[in-house]
Amino acid sequence: MLKVLSCIATDHSYGLLALAALVCLLGSILTVRLYARVQRSTGMQKLNWLFTSGVVGGSTIWMTHFIAMLSFDPPLAHAYEPTLTMASLAAAIGVTILGFLITAAGKPGLLIELGGGVVGAGIAIMHYTGMAGYQIAGRMEWDSSYYAASVFLGIGFGAVATGLIARRGARWRQYLGILALVLAITTMHFTGMSAVTIIPDQLIITSNDMIPDSLLTVVVAIIGMMLALGASTYAIDLQSTRGAAERFRHLSLHDPLTGLPNRTALGEHLQGVIDRQKAGTAGIAVLSFDLDRFKDVNDVHGHAAGDAVLQGVAERMSKVLGEGEFIARMGGDEFVALSTNLARYDDATAFASRLVEAIIQPVEWEGKKLLVGTSVGISHYPADARTPQALLAQADLAMYRAKAAGSNAVRSYEPAMDDAARDRSALAMDMRQGIERNEFELYYQYQNNSQTREVIGFEVLLRWHHPVRGMVPPAEFIPIADRNGFIHELGDWVLRTACQQAACWTNPLKIAVNVAPGQLTNVNLAARVHEILLETGLQPSRLELEITESGIIADQQNAVRIIRQLKQLGVKIAMDDYGTGYSSLTTLQNFPFDKIKIDRAFIDGVTTNRQSAAIVRSTIILADSLGIPVLAEGVEREEHMDFLLNEGCRQVQGYLFGRPMPLSEIDHVVNRPCAALICAEAVSIDAEPVKLRSAVA
After folding, report:
1. pLDDT in tens, 526-543
2. pLDDT in tens, 469-481
3. Cis preceding linkage at 382, omega within 30
4. Exposure check for the chain: N or C terminus, fewer CB within 10 A?
5. Cβ proximity of 573 and 551 under 8 Å
6. Separation CA 637–CA 494 (nearest Å)
């Protein structure tokens, strides 16, 4: 050890030695960052990053050695043999690439360290090849113990470096990996230099064909440009990746049709506004808007006219916003506005009137003037509620009261509006009796292979034939069941009935059953599913449970535990309605989904709306990189199919293939011996299907 330190202290120029250390450190950082790209890439892209990281790593090793050699200042004439000098560069790059290839190709295990050992061996090969080309007016005698120690240090620290950087974990592992790589290069070099003793010999004369220090400096500078090129490549890729992430986040937080913030952005903004308020301070108003006569515009003039109205209304509302005011589109013809610029309680009504005036102006479309009205409900913080969910719910109650009063009415929330909650309670009581009276029925909708159009499974949908109210929309009774806890009993009925029916099919197609958010809070959900599978005899691999992100966001730790329990049963898990909730990258990373279902709202606009197309395309690319299949909902036209096929979406569902239908109408599909069935032969659909919002238990 003392000999190594003495070699560094007495035989080297400190300036060039510092430069060699800086090149080694920066090159090692860049090499590790480039290798991280190898781990996140596939196919040719993976090979490209592998080659780049190997070239940069090998060049770093070579430059560190020869800058250190330039700092080595013996009192004897010396030079460098060209062939061996350049061979040492080729060895450094080639062996480093080989080592990274072994590490990247191997699964977690000793292959990772083996690849690192190869990189360390490459450092030793480069060093001693370079030293073989080092010509000096003297004889070089080698100490075998230092020679062996230098090789051991290079291989050992190389193995440690790849063991740290190739295994995912905390960021400190990467930093330690960089340090280990620096130590592999430096300890190997200086221990190797301590292994040699130069004995002057006047009979030895360096050839004129050798490379002097001045020319070697130029060569080192040229190789340094390779490092600069690698750094530039990394910087460009990093900027592109961050730009793509920012664009993806912007798309996930904004409505593709109007460009307004969406439901997710509203939730974040409202929670942030509440958090900034001092306890007990008034001054936040939540306004819920629902357009009147919008359905008439759609029915008479078509969806293109409806889209034009939504865009026009959104643009005009945005223009009249002032300081402390915010607006978002919740979906359909629903908007929500916030105001924190309230000096008096009545200022919220004035804000609402300003927005109403903007909404009721005619929208020009293809020579026609399209007119809509609106109904507005207002709730206040903290007078009415103190949480975003409660404020939005009370604004909705007030909006429905305004709608009953006539177009363009504005109403503030009052406790009496909770009468509507009593009607929901009555409906909840009817639901419990509905199971006993066999008023519920399961409907099935085809899920198809997008390339062959073969039926690959069914989504199970719940229908309620109420004896007085008639057909109650699922969107009306499912949220009530979820809120009052009846969703557990109703969900068990749906799952048991679906499994019983599917278990009797001769054609073993898969079924997909939705899990409501309330069901996912039940710690015994996996046990109930297991009991039902045993009771009905349905194979777990034929069951897919669909979960929305809103169902897991409240208690992610509990949700991920339940999902893993379900997967241990052999059941598949799908994320439903992707794009309408949080749809964050963290959710996809933390939860083991087997499928992503893109919401129909985005599929409807892929051929007409650039933002919708971008969201769908980004989702398919993201899912493909994660190895998760994608199913597109709401496929109604061949234009949708053309887009999805071009983007590589493999599974589809929608009215183009068939409406939801009772079990009796799919008997010819589920009880025929061949699972492959072309939908065009199996079902006849209307030319202009009525678009329904189906909900499932």
Report:
1. 999 999 999 999 999 999
2. 899 888 888 888 8
3. yes
4. N
5. no
6. 30
Tokens 């450190």 found at? 25
- Among candidates 338, 331, 329, 328, which has minimal Cα distance to 270? 338
In sequence order, what DSSP letters do the residues of 132-149 get, joined into one string? HTEEESEEEEE-HHHHHH
Read off the amino acid at residue 200.
P
| Tokens 């949220």 found at | 479
Q: How far apart are CA 375 and CA 398, in angstroms?
A: 9
Which is nearest to 363 in space by CA: 397, 333, 404, 322? 333
- Averaged over 521-526, what is the pLDDT? 88
Contact 408, 352 (CB under 8 A): no
> Rounded mean pLDDT of 302-329?
91
Positive/negative CA dihedral, 197, 201, 204, 209 = positive
Cα separation, 402 vs 394, whole angstroms: 12
d(C-alpha 336, C-alpha 273), whole Å: 15
What's the length of the chain?
697
Contact 578, 599 (CB under 8 A): yes
pLDDT of 412 over the 60 cut? yes
Token pair recorded at residue 665: 């109408």
Complete domains list, the chain, with CATH:
2-246 (no CATH), 263-413 (3.30.70.270), 422-682 (3.20.20.450)
Instruction: Enumerate the β-bridge partners of residue 547.
Output: 515, 575
**DSSP run (H or E) holding 163:** helix 144-165
Q: Which residues contact 380 (CB under 8 A, 6 or more apart)?
A: 282, 284, 285, 286, 345, 348, 412, 413
Tokens at residue 158, please? 């190389």
Residue 381 DSSP label:
E
pLDDT band for 230, please (50, 70, 90 cuts). confident
